[in-house]
């Protein structure tokens, strides 16, 4: 499931609520893997005051569902929750959360990371930074998520 | 009618979020851009057809939704 | 930091509290990676009613600190929190939580998984299952955490 | 005096959690088990010396803490 959120969210509160309503009592899970991406106040050498996140309504949800389905087909997973902010973000605001519930830990680790990497390369979201000098600047590309592994 | 959408830096470049185009010409995604903007689509841009990633040469028909945008930077 | 807990804990509440007191305002982080291991009501083909977790007080903390230090020396990490239950656990009780805060996502993913694997192979904890027929049975070994990757 | 600890299934096997042993004999970790239990340490067991993983042949001296336990199963 993907939620596109226009307001700030607390990932730990979202997880507590979602687990209560969607997981506990329904699934016998042994593992939960979570990734939260948070807005930093720097990028490369620039200070960043705020960030404007836009997306392609409709296509974003469709592509994210496809990403989740394609990956969960290959692993033994009980549920996947993705939350992604759009709109104006301030430093330390959560941008994205991916949570995976599975029987065994290998699936939670693999799927949370794979969904995150695919989101960053395929889901139609775009970041515009407002830098310390108030210049607005579109982020041109996401960095790779694996290195020296 | 074909719906044409622009996102992110490409929306700034063209100065609007959307165009409408008569579908009678049977154009490719690349040709639609050329027709509307009299210039080739900037290199490195991505395109979609009905909210699925597509190729520049894919044909577009009446009722379709085409979009042009730079590489995604979410997450 | 490692916390050995004798009572049930809510990982999302622990994270909310720890982040407020130890992370927010102190670190400019961009990524948080979390793993939670939860007691299942089955293992192999057996139903499991409860689990008794014992440890070696002193050595557990010492070995866990060593695991964390050895791994964080190799990656760019801001903080690591490990919580591990001991005592009597019931199905769906959290057993272990590993949380990692870092600038970039690669470090959060790598370190949360590496700490988890090392915990399972080096930290002196032992599980005893109480099966559905009330037989008590020491778990003999942990399963591998990587497969087909 | 040497403190000797047993954990998990090995605690069940020996029927207690701890032994104390006079340190005068200058024994290895393996020999301490043999001395206390008149039988070799079961195969596959792990040992520690002062809360660090150790080898069966490591020597033990006065004031040390030795422990015997099966493979760990936490996490």
Describe the structure.
The complex is a heterotetramer, with 2 copies of chain A (149 residues) and 2 copies of chain B (75 residues). Chain A is an alpha+beta fold. Chain A has a single domain (2-133), classed as Aldehyde Oxidoreductase, domain 3. Chain A contains 3 helices and 9 strands. In chain A, the strands form 2 sheets. In chain A, strands 3, 4, 6, 8 and 9 form a 5-stranded antiparallel beta sheet that branches. A 4-stranded mixed beta sheet of chain A has the order 1-5-7-2, sandwiched between helices. The longest helix of chain A has 18 residues, at 105-122. Chain A starts with a strand and ends in an 11-residue tail after the last strand. The model of chain A has no long low-confidence stretch (mean pLDDT 94). Chain B is of the alpha+beta class. Chain B has a single domain (2-69), classed as Ubiquitin-like (UB roll) (Roll), CATH 3.10.20.30. Helix content of chain B is 20%, strand content 27%. Chain B has 2 helices and 5 strands, in the order E-H-E-H-E-E-E. Chains A and C meet through helix 1, strand 2 and helix 3 of A and helix 1, strand 2 and helix 3 of C. Strand 2 (31-38) of chain A pairs antiparallel with strand 2 (31-38) of chain C.
